[in-house]
Amino acid sequence: MGTSEIETYDLVGVGFGPSNLSLAVALEEHRGGIPGQPLTAAFFERQPSFGWHRNMLLPHTTMQISFLKDLVTFRNPLSRHSFVSYLHSVGRLTQFVNNQDFFPTRQEFHQYLEWVESNFSHQVSYGSEVTGLRLPENSGPGRPDHVQVEVRDTGGSGTRIVNARNLVISTGLVPRMPEGIQRDERVWHSSDLLERFRGLNGDDLKNVAVVGAGQSAAEITRFFHDMLPHAQVTAVIPSYGYSVADDTPFANQVFDPSAVDDYYFGTELTREAFWRYHRNTNYSVVDDELIRDLHKRSYQEDVSGHKRLQFLNLTRVAAVRRAGTETRVTLRSLVEGESRELETDALVFATGYDSMEPSRLLGDLDQHFLRNQNGLHRVERNYRIATTGALPFDVYLQGGTEHTHGLTSSLLSNLAIRSGEIVKSIEQRRTERALIHRTPVAAGESTS
Ligand SMILES: Cc1cc2nc3c(=O)[nH]c(=O)nc-3n(C[C@H](O)[C@H](O)[C@H](O)COP(=O)(O)OP(=O)(O)OC[C@H]3O[C@@H](n4cnc5c(N)ncnc54)[C@H](O)[C@@H]3O)c2cc1C
Fold first, then answer.
1. Which of 431, 405, 429, 430 is nearest to 418 (CA)?
2. Is residue 224 scored above 90 in pLDDT?
3. 337 and 371, same domain (yes or no)
4. 1 part of a folded domain
5. For residues 171 and 12, what is the distance between their CA atoms, to the nearest angstrom?
6. Which residue CA neighbors atom 29 of ligand 1 most closely?
7. In angstroms, what is the span from residue 18 Cα to ligand 1's centroid?
C-alpha cells in the first residue's frame, strides 16, 4: 500500500482471539449478500502472533466447554474448520474418540485454534494495536461511509490508518488486581504466569502464594505444587473453601444459544435470575476433579507429616511490600480480624478479570453511542451498539455484553452463532444502504 492510499474494508476486527477468528470463519462461510461483492475484512492483533491465554496453558488444564462448542459447529456442522476436522487432519480422531472425553486439554484446543488461524493469517496484522478512531474529513462528494482506524505498530514503526465501514471490537477480558497492588517481576496476575515463571530460576522459589478461589487460582496452586517440589505453596482463599462449578445438564442450558434470547428479551427479573441461580456455572468456581485433587494432596501431606501445601481460608491480602527479591504480604483473617505476615518469592493474584469495555477505543466518538440508565452501552440483539443516528459506521461487540446478552458474553460457548449473527447483520445493513442510495456497493477499494 502506498503512503497516500488508505484501504477501506467492510469490516475491521479489533483483536484476533477466538471471537474474531470465529468471525473470520463465519465471513468465509457466509452465503448470499450482493453477488460478486463479498464483504472485505481486515483484523488487527496487538500480540506478535496468534495466542489464546498463553500464560495459562498449564499442563493438564482442560477446557470448560465441550469440544463441539468450537469456532463453528453450532452454526455450521459441515464446516471444514471444526474441531473434529482438525482431529481428522492431524490423525488423532480415532484416539480422541477412544479417550471418551468431551473436554480436551487447553493445550490441544490451542493447537486447534492455531490450525484454524493458519487459514486466515493473510487477513491479520500482528503486532498491531488499534489505538483510536476518528471521523474522516468530508472532502469528496457525498457523506463518508466509514471511520478511520488508527493502528500502532507495536514494533515501533509508527501508526497507520485504515478505513472501516464496520468495526467489530473483540479485545477480551481485562486482568483485575486488588486496588493499590502493582504487578512486577515477583507480584503477578494469573495472566502473567508462565512468562514470569519461566523468567525465574525455580530453585529460587521457596515460598509461593496464590490469591483467589476460582478455577485459575486452583490450577496455579496445583501447578506450583507440581513444578516446585521443594517449595511451600500457600493458597490464600477469601471464601471458606473452593466452590464447585456446576456443569450439570440443566444448568448448562444457560450457555445455549437460545438462552441469549431469553436473557435479551427477558424482564429485569429474568436477567437477575440468570445471575442469582447460575453464577456458579462460571464465576469463582472450580472443577470438581481439581478440588478433589488438591484436597487429596493436602491430606496426603497430613498423613506423611511433610506439609508444604497450606490453605488459608477466609483470608484476604491487606497489603504487599516489596524488598529486593522478597515480597512481604500482610494477610487479614476474616474470622478473627487478625493480621499475619507471609514472605513469598512469588505472589500470584488469580483475582479475575473485568469485562471488555470499548469506551477507551471509541474515544470522543463514544458520545454518539447510546447508554442505558446504568450508564452501560445499549447493545442491539445483533451486537451492534445503538447510536444517536449520526454516525457513518457501525460498531459491533464480541464481549462486554453481559448486561444485554448474558453469561456467554465473554465465553466460547456461543462464538459460532454470535459470529454468524454479526456477519448477517453487517450484510443486511449494507444491502439496505445500497437500496436506499440506489448505488452499487463498492467493496475493498482504495481511496487516496
Ligand atoms: C485461563 C482462561 C481459560 C479460559 N477457558 C475458557 C473455556 O474453557 N471456555 C470458555 O468458554 N471460556 C474460557 N475462558 C474465557 C475467555 O474469555 C474466552 O476463552 C476467550 O478468550 C474469548 O475470546 P476473545 O477473542 O473474545 O478474547 P481474547 O481471547 O481475550 O482475545 C482478545 C484479543 O484482542 C487483543 N487486543 C486487545 N486489545 C487490542 C487492541 N487495542 N488492538 C489489537 N488487539 C487487541 C488481545 O491481545 C487478544 O489477543 C477462559 C479465560 C481464561 C483467562
1. 405
2. yes
3. no
4. no
5. 13
6. 17
7. 7
Answer yes or no: do 41 and 158 share one domain: yes
Task: For residue 22, give the ligand 1 atom closest to its CA.
Answer: 25
pLDDT band at 324 (very low <50, low <70, confident <90, very high): confident
Q: Is 215 exposed, middle or buried (0-12, 13-18, 19+ CB in 10 A)?
A: buried
Residue 236 is assigned to a structural domain of this protein: yes
Q: Report which ligand 1 atom has the smallest distance to the Cα of 399.
A: 26
Same domain, residue pair 76 and 160: yes
What's the pLDDT tens digit per position in 384-440?
999 988 789 999 999 999 999 999 999 999 999 999 999 999 999 998 888 876 655
In this structure, the answer to whether residues 272 and 399 fall within a common structural domain is no
Tell me if 233 is assigned to some domain: yes
**Which cell goes with 250?**
440443566
Burial 107-116 (b: 16+ CB within 10 A, else e): ebbbebbbbb
CA of residue 419 to ligand 1 center, whole Å: 15
CA of 163 to the centre of ligand 1 (A): 25
Is the predicted pLDDT of residue 446 greater than 60, yes or no?
A: no
- The residue whose CB lies within 8 Å of the most ligand 1 atoms, and thus the one to mutate among 12, 19, 110, is 19
Residues 238, 167 share a domain: no
Using CB distances shorter than 6 Å, the residues near ligand 1 are 14-15, 17-20, 44-47, 52-53, 56, 63-65, 129-130, 170-173, 216, 398-399, 410-413
* Cα 172 to ligand 1 centroid, rounded to whole Å: 4
